[in-house]
Amino acid sequence: MKKLLIIGGSGFVGANLAAMAKTDWQVTVTSHTASVITIDSVQVVSMDITDRQQVFDVIENIRPDAVIHTAAISSLDACIEDRDRADRINTVATADIAAAAKSVGVKMVFTSTDLVYAGNRSFYAETDDAKPSCYYGQTKLAAEQAIVDSGVDYAIARLALVYGRKLGPQNSGVEALLANLAAGKSFAQFSTEYRTPVYVEDLCAVLVEMASNPALSGIYNVGSPQRVSRYEFAQILARTFGYPEELIKPGQVIAANFKDHRPEDCSMNTDKLKTALGRSLSDITEGLIKIKRNRHAI
Q1: Is the pTM of this model over 0.90?
Q2: Are residues 136 and 110 in the same domain?
Q3: What is the tens place of the pLDDT at every residue in 187-240?
Q4: Kind plus residue range of the DSSP H or E element containing 285
Q5: Please, which contacts does 142-148 make with residues 24 or more away whose CB atoms are closer than 8 Å?
Q6: Residue 57 needs a FRET pair 20 to 30 A away by CA distance; which of 29, 69, 206, 278 works?
Q7: What is the bridge-based pairing of β-strands 194-195 and 228-229?
Q8: Looking at the structure, do residues 186 and 46 belong to the same domain, yes or no?
């Protein structure tokens, strides 16, 4: 079996990715400070991605056929509160991983974000200028450029909001919403923040395909074909799972106390990915129905 190295195995995407990829790959995941979910046949190695020598040593020792880098500080507030740490983890470490992957001649797949776009209009395409309005988006755009400059064989996935089931003890965003709905609690969701949410299993399938298919190179928007606000997403969730939609109230981003700017509309055009794959990813109802079918695993 080919060997796949997943950097960031303790994260939501990384854990789901490992669980999916282990069928066809010999999978190794890295972790540093967080616990990693035990997955049969998946190996775990400790690695501090801010230690350049350690990054080179791990990739040299494993000699994977592909590297998928999912580790990051993704909290907008955390990035703006400690810019140096965000730079080290999100940008500098990514540059080191790209250099290490190039040194052993393997492809690197990188999970970026829809927040590299300015966020003031709908359905951004990959050819549109990336002008992030939050510091997290700036660190990820700088990481993208570092990958391009490194000369490594790469694919960059600009991810929309990712939803799906957990593989660890902490609830995912969907599960937290479902817990409130099941308890009959009323809560607010932003009605003025629009994204193109992607089902985590769809995303993982795309990342694995990027790792294995030489034709999938460059930058791709990865999201569903459906643009919704967080409020609309929660309404679809309630409807799909049979809970009262009235429990969900519309909220305004401007009324929330955030430390950095939250873009209002980073919805993405995913035609390039659809053409490359020959298929669309699940719309939100389809993705949520898949979660409902696997409810026993939540």
Answers
A1: yes
A2: yes
A3: 999 999 999 999 999 999 999 999 999 999 999 999 999 999 999 999 999 999
A4: helix 284-293
A5: 142/87, 142/90, 142/91, 143/90, 143/91, 143/94, 143/95, 143/110, 143/112, 144/110, 144/112, 144/116, 144/219, 146/91, 146/94, 146/95, 146/98, 147/94, 147/95, 147/98, 147/108, 147/110
A6: 206
A7: antiparallel
A8: no
